[in-house]
Amino acid sequence: MGIVPKGIFVPLITPFNEDETIDFQAYQKVIDFQIESGVHGLLVGGTTGEYHVMSFEERKSLIRAGCEYAAERVPVMAGVGCSTAKETIELANFAAECGAKWGLVLPPYYHKTSEDGIREFFKEIAAKSNVGIVIYNYPGATGVCLSPELIYELSQEENIVSVKESADFGHLCQVAALTKDVDNFSVFTGEEHFILPTFSIGGQGAFGILVNLLPKEMVMLYELAVEKNDLHAARELNRKLSGFYGLMEAEGNPYPGPVKAGMDMIGMKGGKVRKPLTQPTDEIKTKIEEELIKLGYKVKSLNKN
């Protein structure tokens, strides 16, 4: 497919109505907010978007809406991972029809397979999908860690164009070193703490739950570190943002509750998380409110006290 993602991608939250149906009107406003703030791409229907508590048809509706609302202003990546290659390919090709450029794919998990099984899983999906495939290495959630050597091998496949690394930073460094000379392949981090370090070793992009809440600041971090090579200014901005990093997953991983609460505070609907996830505690909301105030935001308190 040839198109390689890079820059700051927002793993979009999914706003829900009180009855837990998707609030598409609010979703459109969230997307407009992100694009107007300068993000380089959207991830629709990813983990932060709570795809794991949605039906297959709901996932399709979210991908369709995300592509429609983006209206080609920025490129779209869709979360298309399923437990079988057949379903993943179906969702990937649906995403392509909607206008997405990439599909984010987790390895098989729960019924764990061998490294050969994982290799063939990704190769089959890459060969039969009409979007570029982005590997999602997220052992903290799946219990499956793709070795740096396997990721390097998969990077040789024509239609595998990137990896989203949510393992430890040492693993990311190994992947970046092994793939540095691979044409048409980029390395992303999926962890806020690792964004600046990832740029410093040559990584090309980042996802972060926090981008939903602070897109302008996260894009600025990329511009300072990558485009302007101003490490001093990037460090200073990173220090200001670092208080948010641990809060994003303080009550669970993966968990979009805190960032949704933060968005509600600044007047951009985040809303509730879908069951069986639970709502963020007042303690977490207070801490997020305090960090937003430090950055100069006017906030609406969500706590009753």
TrEMBL record:
UniProt binding sites for pyruvate: T48
Site (Part of a proton relay during catalysis) residue list: T47, Y110
Keywords in alphabetical order: Amino-acid biosynthesis, Cytoplasm, Diaminopimelate biosynthesis, Lyase, Lysine biosynthesis, Schiff base
Residues spanning the signal sequence: none
Localization per record: Cytoplasm
EC number in record: 4.3.3.7
First-listed, main subcellular location of the protein, grouped into a coarse class: cytoplasm
Residues of the active site: Y136, K164
Catalytic activity: L-aspartate 4-semialdehyde + pyruvate = (2S,4S)-4-hydroxy-2,3,4,5-tetrahydrodipicolinate + H2O + H(+)
Listed InterPro entries: Aldolase_TIM, DapA, DapA-like
Pathway given in the UniProt record: Amino-acid biosynthesis; L-lysine biosynthesis via DAP pathway; (S)-tetrahydrodipicolinate from L-aspartate: step 3/4
Entry annotated with the keyword Glycoprotein: no
A Pfam family it matches: DHDPS
KW Lyase (keyword) present: yes
Known function: Catalyzes the condensation of (S)-aspartate-beta-semialdehyde [(S)-ASA] and pyruvate to 4-hydroxy-tetrahydrodipicolinate (HTPA).
Family of this protein: Belongs to the DapA family.
Quaternary structure and interacting proteins, as annotated: Homotetramer; dimer of dimers.
UniProt protein name: 4-hydroxy-tetrahydrodipicolinate synthase
Organism this protein belongs to: Fodinisporobacter ferrooxydans
